[in-house]
Amino acid sequence: MTPEPYRPEPVETFLSPEPLAAMHKALVEVKAQLGRHYPLIIGGEKVDTARKVVSTNPSDPAQVVGTTAMASASEADAALEAAWKAFASWKKWPQEDRSRLLMKAAHVMKRRQRELEAWLVYEIGKNYVEAAAEVAEAIDFLRYYAIQSLKYAAGAPVTHFPGEDNEAFYIPLGAGVVIAPWNFPLAILCGMIMGPVAVGNTVVAKPAEDTVVIAAKLFEIFEEAGVPAGVVNFLPGEGSEVGAHLVAHPKTRFVNFTGSLEVGLRINETAARLAPGQLWLKRVFLELGGKDGLIVDETADLEAAALGTVQSAFGFQGQKCSAASRLIVVDKVADLVVERVVERARQLSVGPAEENPDMGPVASAQQENTVRKYLDIGQDEGKLALGGHRLEGSGYFFEPTVFDHVAPDARIAQEEIFGPVLSVIRVPDFDAALEVANGTRFGLTGGVYSRSRDRLERARREFHVGNLYFNRKITGALVGVQPFGGFNLSGTDTKAGGPDYLLNFLQMKSVTERY
Ligand code: NAD
Asked: What is the pTM of this model?
């Protein structure tokens, strides 16, 4: 296999008429398919259940996007068994063949690009560009991991020792569990499944309850690409029920999780306990929340800083783990920066995702409640500079909201809101800015707008986050370009889309033969 060198899939902007027309057509076609039902997939077999997961459109919650079967413990057991059965042969596939299969899946996804974007618009309320960025990222994960996995096939170099033939090589772990969030329901799910699978593992995948239909579409792609039965198993269900069961299961070899800190901590604890009959220590990968800060100092290009702040805080309604939720600005330019941020944010359109606004709805009734709660808290903790309200109507729409004069230890400056709410923290100087930026329990993304070389270099060393950006927005990490993952309670820093990611799902075996 001689793959083309990896480069990120360009993200469609829909500024020219052709892709825009294709998107409108895809939206019409997908709309005609709303309400369909999708079964579980266990060992290649379609399995239905009496209970259903119902996925609705957050722009219009009365509209059912689709339903899936809802797995319980018995289906989870069967899925893990199927994954182990498939592992026996999948692990023996030549790496080139496995990589070729991932490339094939990337081609199928590329062919269905507009359609997948349309599903994201309906199921989770992304506007066209946000949806396009996500589908491009999913394609990137497939291509990047296909290529990265080839490098492990040669084994690891060891030092020659007289009288012996020594070698070290990599073998996969076994059958693992993937548990995904709703905010990148295609890309993160795809990457968390196909990373481990690329290097010979098999998985049982539990998508988030709110985004089971796009997950079913991903499994259609795997099927079309020819992924063998049992290598990937589709198991939608309740997190606290089937997710928890899978994590505790003695047959689970590893857990690949992306989601909230609260659930991640529970998973970490459960997976650490030895279940009866369990033969290994489970490997657990946890990519969790953030309280991402953007520093603007008095030397910065203030217009660029305001633009980057608004993009980072309000893109996909602030529901990215990388979203800017704290603007940390030096007093001298604070009024000017806040004014510009507020002016730009005020112009953002909010509405049904189908109409391609700047901001669609938040994802669910649960998200709506969380955002409402923090808007109330914010009234006491800051000075409302913009927004602060839910919009009329059934869709979960909120105004972009900015609270100014927020203390660094306020709840809205410390707790992850995961919505379109920005807290502005004013600081006397850059030293204080760095201290505030590092003053949370998270450490996912961060940014600095400054023209001072000294300060940028200081931030490079001292701003303790997994993904740091200078003079640009802090969202939109690209696979292979910005390996993604956080420090502290933001997670185990697996660096999805990074050159070492696949090593997490391999173990090294050393073999010595005496001459
Ligand atoms: P969540 O933790 O509520 O749910 C994530 C998944 O865990 C879902 O599939 C859910 O069903 C499942 N789950 C729930 N309870 C469980 C349990 N007891 N045992 C096993 N599984 C269980 O998170 P969410 O609301 O879907 O996603 C938003 C969160 O994800 C935010 O905190 C965000 O910052 C984070 N996130 C992090 C990254 C990253 O790379 N660091 C990326 C995206 C999202």
From this structure: 0.98
